[in-house]
C-alpha cells in the first residue's frame, strides 16, 4: 500500500469544519512534459478525476478561465520568461479572488517564495520534494489552508524580521521579475515584450532597482541580477 496521504482518508469521524474535501478537478501549468505527466499521475492517485494541463502562462490563464478548476498548481519559471509564474498567479487571483493556487519550483529562495504568497498563492512546494509532501500540500490548498515546507517557513519569518537589512526583500514582484531577466542577459526591449510592458517602464524600473539595491552602476546591478538568476532552473 502506498505511503502517500489520501484526501479525506481517516478511520475516525472528523468534525465537519475540519474534514478534508477532495478537489473535483485540477489545473497543472508547467512547460516540461515529464513534470506534467508525473503530477498528473500523483493527482490521479489522490483520487482527482479530472486534470487539466497547460504548458505556458497564456494557456494556463485561458484554461483556468474556461474550466475554473478547484485548484491550480503552477511552476514559477517558464523557459526564458523569468518568474512569469508570478504574473499567472496574480492574473488568476484578479479573475477569481478565491482561487486556490499551489506554486512549485526547483529553487527555494525565501525572497521569491514570499513574493509567491504576496501574489496570492496559498502554498509552495519544491519540485524535488517527496510525492507525499506534494499530496500533503495539495490537500492543504484544496481545503483553503496555507502550506509551506517547515524550513522555508522559518527562513521567510527570519526574512520578514530582518527585512530592513535585506534589500531584495523590499522589491516588488515585478521588480524581481525584471531583475531575474536582467540576470539572464535580456535587453530592455525583450524584457518589455516578455512582461507586456512598454520600454520606458522597464527603464524606469531598472533605475528604481539600482536605487533600492544601493548600487551605483548598471554593471553592479547586473552582478546582483546574475547571482539571482542562477538560483532559477
TrEMBL record:
Organism: Methylobacterium pseudosasicola
Keyword Transmembrane attached: no
SUPFAM superfamilies (UniProt xref): C-terminal effector domain of the bipartite response regulators, CheY-like
Residues of the HTH luxR-type domain: 164-229
GO biological process assignments: phosphorelay signal transduction system; regulation of DNA-templated transcription
Residue intervals of the Response regulatory domain: 25-142
Short name of any one Pfam family annotated for the protein: Response_reg
Modified residues (4-aspartylphosphate): 75
The protein, known as: Two component transcriptional regulator, LuxR family
GO-annotated molecular function: DNA binding
Amino acid at each position: 500500500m502506498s505511503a502517500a496521504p489520501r484526501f479525506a482518508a481517516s478511520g475516525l469521524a472528523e468534525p465537519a469544519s475540519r474534514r478534508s474535501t477532495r478537489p473535483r478537478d485540477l489545473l497543472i501549468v508547467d512547460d516540461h512534459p515529464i513534470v506534467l505527466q508525473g503530477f498528473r499521475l500523483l493527482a490521479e492517485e489522490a483520487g482527482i478525476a479530472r486534470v487539466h494541463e497547460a504548458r505556458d502562462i497564456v494557456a494556463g490563464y485561458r484554461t483556468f478561465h474556461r474550466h475554473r478548476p478547484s485548484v491550480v498548481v503552477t511552476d514559477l519559471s517558464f523557459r526564458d520568461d523569468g518568474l512569469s509564474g508570478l504574473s499567472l498567479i496574480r492574473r488568476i487571483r484578479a479573475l477569481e479572488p478565491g482561487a486556490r493556487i499551489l506554486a512549485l519550483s526547483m529553487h527555494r529562495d525565501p525572497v521569491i517564495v514570499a513574493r509567491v504568497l504576496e501574489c496570492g498563492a496559498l502554498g509552495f512546494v519544491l519540485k524535488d520534494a517527496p510525492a507525499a509532501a506534494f499530496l500533503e500540500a495539495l490537500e492543504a490548498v484544496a481545503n483553503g489552508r496555507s502550506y509551506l515546507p517547515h524550513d522555508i517557513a522559518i527562513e521567510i519569518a527570519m526574512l520578514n524580521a530582518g527585512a530592513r537589512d535585506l534589500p531584495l526583500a523590499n522589491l516588488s514582484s515585478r521588480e524581481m521579475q525584471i531583475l531575474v531577466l536582467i540576470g539572464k542577459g535580456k535587453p530592455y526591449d525583450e524584457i518589455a515584450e516578455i512582461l507586456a510592458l512598454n520600454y520606458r517602464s522597464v527603464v524606469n524600473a531598472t533605475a528604481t532597482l539600482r536605487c533600492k539595491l544601493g548600487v551605483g552602476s548598471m554593471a553592479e546591478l547586473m552582478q546582483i541580477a546574475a547571482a539571482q538568476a542562477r538560483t532559477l532552473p
